[in-house]
Write a structure and sequence with these properties.
Layout: H1 3-14, E1 23-27, H2 32-48, E2 51-58, H3 65-79, E3 83-87, H4 98-117, E4 121-123, H5 128-140, E5 154-155, E6 158-159, H6 167-176, H7 193-208, H8 213-242, E7 250-252, H9 261-276, H10 282-294, E8 299-302, E9 308-312, E10 315-319
Parallel strand pairs: 1-2, 1-4, 2-3, 4-6
Antiparallel strand pairs: 5-6, 7-10, 8-9, 9-10
Helix pairs in contact: 1-2, 2-6, 5-7, 8-9
Length: 329
């Protein structure tokens, strides 16, 4: 068995990604990562006893979109696998947050299709190089030290069987076996931050670290995970002592007194983001805490998606209000 096949087979078992007899929906774009994923899973399906179905997403944003869809359909026909084509009618060029909107559409469409097909898992082709990109993007966007993690092997129903494989290894596998794929020219565009991280920042960091970048990031992620575990233990102890839920809609500020600074930050961050579904970069969190400690009066702090945190008499409350804040942040 090919070495890459052996590693993937071991990963499926070690991380309990696929149950015997289950149906798997594989997301295939026509690029090398997803083409390799499909071929690898096809090879392993008799051994692990799962059934495959394929979904391809046509965003209708590139001239090559129709050719990509045709490539995937022909590939599925050659492998005798069902192929489901999803076409977006709403995505438009030059709109704000286009990549995020496209990702949200793919996730929603694939989950709906998986339900219709009775597929237990949705397999995506994220691989080791994507992990590095994700970690660096989180750092660039100001993630808290305890949140500097890459993608998990599974966030059900999604699974990522290729996280231990590099892009080069996948392309080498395809080349060895005379298997085709298509290149997405938009992956070279400097318009997107992820592309600049992939094509400019990562090669420089690998050179400066003498190819030690993956190990450096893995070490930092391990430390980040230990910190996250400690913070979670502290938050549980605080909840047991105070009877307060950090994910409620209100939080009494005095209950934070005496807690270590990092624990206070974790509780406030969790309180704001879990209930509202918003993001809160670390610098923004510090701005909020500075306001909380300097202004005992009545004020509101603006968040994303129309949410605000209102402070009154030592109580923080999450609101979606049209009221004019007394002291906007």
């Amino acid at each position: 068995m090919d070495g890459l096949l052996q590693r993937l087979s071991a990963a499926l078992t070690r991380h309990e990604l696929i149950r015997s007899g289950s149906r798997i929906l594989v997301c295939v774009s026509s690029g090398s990562d997803s083409a390799a994923l499909l071929h690898l899973l096809q090879h392993l399906s008799p051994c692990h006893q799962f059934q495959l179905e394929v979904v391809h997403f046509n965003h209708q944003l590139r001239q090559e979109s129709a050719a990509d869809a045709e490539f995937v359909q022909n590939l599925c026909e050659s492998l005798k696998l069902p192929c489901h084509l999803q076409i977006s009618e709403s995505l438009q060029h030059e709109t704000s947050g286009l990549q995020a909107k496209a990702r949200e559409w793919r996730q929603a469409a694939s989950m709906k299709l998986a339900t219709q097909l009775g597929a237990e898992r949705i397999a995506t082709a994220h691989q080791a190089d994507d992990q590095i990109e994700t970690w660096l993007l989180k750092w660039l966007r100001g993630a808290h030290l305890s949140k500097l993690h890459g993608m998990r092997w599974s966030t059900l129903p999604f699974i990522r069987p290729l996280l231990a494989c590099t892009r080069q290894e996948l392309q080498d596998f395809l080349t060895r076996n005379n298997l085709a794929w298509r290149e997405d020219k938009s992956n070279q565009s400097p318009k997107y931050l992820r592309n600049r991280v992939r094509n400019e920042l990562i090669p420089l960091l690998k050179e400066l670290s003498r190819n030690g970048l993956p190990q450096r990031l893995e070490d930092l992620e391990t430390q980040s995970t230990h910190l996250q575990t400690w913070l979670a233990d502290c938050v549980r102890a605080w909840q047991a002592e105070t009877g307060v839920r950090a994910s409620g809609i209100s939080l009494a500020v005095p209950t934070l007194d005496g807690l270590p600074e990092l624990v206070q930050q974790e509780i406030v961050h969790h309180f704001i983001t879990e209930r509202s579904g918003t993001t809160l970069p670390y610098r923004r969190l510090l701005e909020f805490l500075k306001l909380l400690r300097s202004n005992p009066g009545v004020w509101e702090f603006s968040l994303e998606k129309g949410w605000r945190v209102r402070h009154r008499s030592g109580i923080l409350k999450l609101v979606r209000s049209s009221e004019t804040p007394n002291s906007p942040a």
